[in-house]
Amino acid sequence: MRSAKTETDQSVAEASRAFNELVWMLGGGYLVSLYAYADESGIHDGSNAIVIAGWAAPVKQWKKFCRQWQAALNKHGAPYLHMRELQEDDCATNEKSPFYKWKRKRIDAFVNDMIPIARDNAVFGLVASVSKDGYKTLTPLLQISYPHPYVFAFRLFYEEMRKMLTGNSNLGFVLPEGKKCHLTLDQQKEYGPFAIQAFRNLKREQWGGEKFGQMNFAEARGRDAILPLQAADLLANRIYKAHESEVIRD
Questions:
Q1: Of 224, 222, 221, nearest to 69 (Cα)?
Q2: Residue 58, SS3?
Q3: Please, what is the Cα angle at 15 between 27 and 72, to 5 degrees?
Q4: Which of 41, 70, 86, 135 has minimal CB crowding within 10 Å?
Q5: Residues β-bridged to residue 193
Q6: Where are the alpha helices (DSSP H) in the chain?
């Protein structure tokens, strides 16, 4: 009979191996995990804002993150972290969810344990938030260039990412000369094409596009390889909730 500790150690090692496969395919450099967040209505009229969030770190640092993240998942008996499924109403009613019957205290303890693992392993986190109402104020010409709020939000994110990586921030030059930055994003149907469109526009205009490696979809590498995306999901959700609070106060 295997002990619980042995099973935990094995799952942590497996998560690390899965991520190593992704790193081998990317060829090193920096990895940025991206996640987009809106409310339950997604890209439709009921959503007040779109939030794009991500964490950036060298691939070697992500290896350490994966070990710590998987160990924390095991500690809390969670197969993964997905903030939509950790809504209290969903936990109470969705019998198919692995978080079914989780109470607020358990949810908070789980999330609070995950936050420092993401924060402390990243060189920096970055967020772009676009209000639907704000997008509507763009000039008709700009709306032709950015035909959907998601395209505009991703473009803002990429431009700020470039500034952070190339020395236009108080961090100095984050990306070493000759190294590439690989973008991995959660491959959701509602925004994936918009993310690619914004990325291609940036590359075509040569606004430092050479600093970015090819866009890689981590979901294609298997479930364990998307652990960094869970951290991005956490950040995007927290910022979205903060945005909603500001809207309510107004």
A1: 224
A2: strand
A3: 125
A4: 41
A5: none
A6: 4-26, 59-76, 88-93, 104-121, 132-135, 140-145, 149-165, 192-204, 227-249
Distance (Å) of CA 141 to CA 32, 138, 146, 164: 31, 8, 9, 28
**Per-residue pLDDT, 36:** 85
Residue 169 tokens read as 């921030």
Residue 47 in tokens: 């959503």
Q: Rounded CA gap, 81 and 83, in Å?
A: 6
The CA distance from 157 to 80, in Å, is 26
Q: Which residues of 75-111 are buried (b: 16+ CB within 10 A; e: fewer)?
A: ebebebbbbebbbeeebeeeeebebeebeeebbeebb
- The amino acid that residue 223 corresponds to is R
Tokens (6 digits) for 147: 């035909």
Q: Which of 163, 130, 153 is nearest to 49 (CA)?
A: 130
Q: Which amino acid is at 162?
A: R
Distance between CA 53 and CA 128 in Å, rounded?
Answer: 6
Burial 119-147 (b: 16+ CB within 10 A, else e): eebbbbbbbbbbbbeebeeeeeeebeebe
Reported as a single tens digit per residue, the pLDDT across 48-64 is 788 899 999 988 888 89
Residue 104 vs residues 37, 47, 79, 247: alpha-carbon distances, Å: 22, 25, 18, 24
